[in-house]
Design brief:
There is one protein chain. By secondary structure, the protein is mainly beta. It has a domain at about 195-310 and about 335-340. About 10% of the residues lie in helices and about 35% in strands. It is built from 5 helices and 29 strands. The strands form 7 sheets. The protein has a 5-stranded antiparallel sheet, with no helix packed on it. The relative contact order is 0.12.
Length: about 475
């Protein structure tokens, strides 16, 4: 396989320990404690990756609560990668025997996973495929030897999932109504489901290809559901056997969708195409990413971005802003894809992946006016599936899953950028000098999840914005 330009640019970081075909390239900029040096506060930053761990296949990536481990969906299973030194990630272990005891054999196409504490959920297949269908839960306390603790075989493909440590939340699009399926992993059995058919009978008149359940995010007893052209919905899952509707955030009515004459084009081009959904730490800010193309190469469509909503009151969601996609010279499905894919909202930041459009980090201190804090792109060499924050860096998975690309899959590490966060107004406190109440407009937030004074200052900035909004 040919060597891409990005790997030619990266300097050798040392001797990385790997398995099979995995190798490590790096751009060493370590600090004294071995963590990545944060990027400068200039906006936007576009420095090279810190390192690349080449792998055979990469889909979704999530990070451990301490930010020191990346869990990678590898199609045939899972991989655990050590991130303690971001300039030299190391492959620790692989598991490819998911539901191997099934008469159908192991799961063949695992594209999504989710972590809760020391438990890791993997589910699949994402698309029609041979092999077993279902989920497996691992105890990943020992990163070199993940221990299977549960497995549930199911009669549906499972493209995406989420996990709270006991209940697995799954997209069951082979079943009537494209439902959210909930499984109790301790009991190893299904316990509940919900679909748009529970929201209204009018959905029976809409082609189901327009409203697959593409993604689910669960936090604090609420599930956030991306139903493609059916929109984004919030449901209460505090009782998984009795799921109830909280609110519809956005999306067209079933009557409008039922009248569409060309569902194939409609589901491929904007508006709609709610593909990925997540919320920030207190679930007051919601992000919805669309995935779209220009199907007919006639400029009628194109890539979608990430819409941000204030859902402090979920029954009265307010759209705040949109993170626009990177430019592309060919927005067709087989062209240069720059539509939004998976992303993370945390610590006043959005870490996002845009296929051939690269990766970006936005400062969301004021979510009505996001600022680009970091971007990196190598159109020919990479196609990014997701971006996630880790300790001292952020990670992104480059995949060869999209059409029209020939890339070497791998796990990339990047410097975690500093962001600008407005501090308190000195006129309100009588502080005309520097220090904690200075109005120089810059506060630096760096490090892993929950680290540092910068995170606390950023939280103050967000709290001030929310206070202003409540007064408006």
């Amino acid at each position: 396989m040919r060597r891409r330009t990005v790997l030619r640019r990266l300097a050798l970081a040392g001797t990385g320990v790997g398995l099979a075909t995995e190798t490590t390239r790096g751009h060493p900029t370590p600090t004294g404690n071995g963590t990545a040096e944060p990027a400068a506060a200039d906006t936007p930053t576009s420095s090279d990756p810190l390192s690349v761990l080449e792998m055979e296949t990469v889909y979704e990536v999530v990070t451990s609560p301490d930010g020191h481990t990346a869990y990678v969906a590898t199609g045939d299973g899972i991989a655990l990668v050590d991130l303690v030194t971001p300039t030299s990630p190391r492959l620790l272990s692989r598991r490819t025997d998911l539901l191997a005891e099934s008469d159908s054999g192991p799961i063949q196409r695992v594209q999504d996973l989710a972590v809760s504490g020391s438990r890791l959920l993997a589910a699949g297949p994402a698309h029609p495929a041979d092999g077993a269908h279902g989920l497996v839960v691992f105890d990943v306390s020992d990163r070199r030897d993940p221990e299977r603790i549960a497995g549930v075989e199911l009669d549906t493909r499972l493209h995406n999932c989420d996990f709270d440590g006991r209940y697995a939340y799954l997209t069951a699009n082979d079943r009537d109504g494209n439902p959210l399926l909930v499984a109790d992993v301790d009991a190893e059995q299904e316990v509940g489901d919900w679909s748009l058919l529970d929201a209204g009978d009018a959905w029976t008149d809409v082609p189901t290809s327009l409203w697959p359940l593409h993604d689910v995010w669960v936090q604090d007893d609420r599930a956030y559901l991306a139903y493609w052209d059916g929109g984004t919905w919030i449901v209460d899952v505090s009782e998984p056997s009795d799921i109830s509707l909280v609110a519809k955030v956005r999306g067209r009515s079933p009557e409008d969708l039922a009248a569409i004459e060309d569902p194939g084009t409609e589901r491929s081009e904007p508006p709609g195409n709610d593909h990925f959904v997540t919320v920030d730490e207190d679930a007051s800010l919601l992000g919805v990413g669309g995935e779209s193309w220009d199907l007919g190469d006639d400029d009628s469509g194109g890539p979608s971005g990430i819409a941000l909503y204030d859902i402090s009151d979920p029954t009265d969601a307010e759209r705040l802003s949109t993170l626009d996609p990177p430019p592309t010279s060919d927005p067709s499905p087989g062209g240069i894809l720059t539509t939004a894919h998976n992303f993370e909202l945390t610590d006043n930041r959005c870490y996002s992946a845009w296929y051939n459009g690269g990766v970006r980090v936005h400062d969301l201190t004021d979510p009505t006016a996001p600022e680009l804090a970091f971007e990196w792109r190598d159109t020919e060499a990479t196609s990014f599936w997701t971006a996630q924050r880790a300790a001292g860096c952020f990670v992104a998975g480059s995949t060869n899953a999209s059409q029209g690309t020939e890339v070497q899959p791998g796990l990339y590490t990047f410097p975690d950028p500093r962001i600008r966060t407005p501090t308190a107004d000195p006129s309100a406190t009588g502080d005309e000098g520097g220090g904690a109440n200075s109005t120089d407009g810059t506060s630096l937030g760096v490090g892993g999840p929950g680290f540092g004074v910068g995170s606390a200052v950023a939280a103050v900035g967000l709290a001030a914005w929310r206070a202003r909004r409540r007064q408006d």
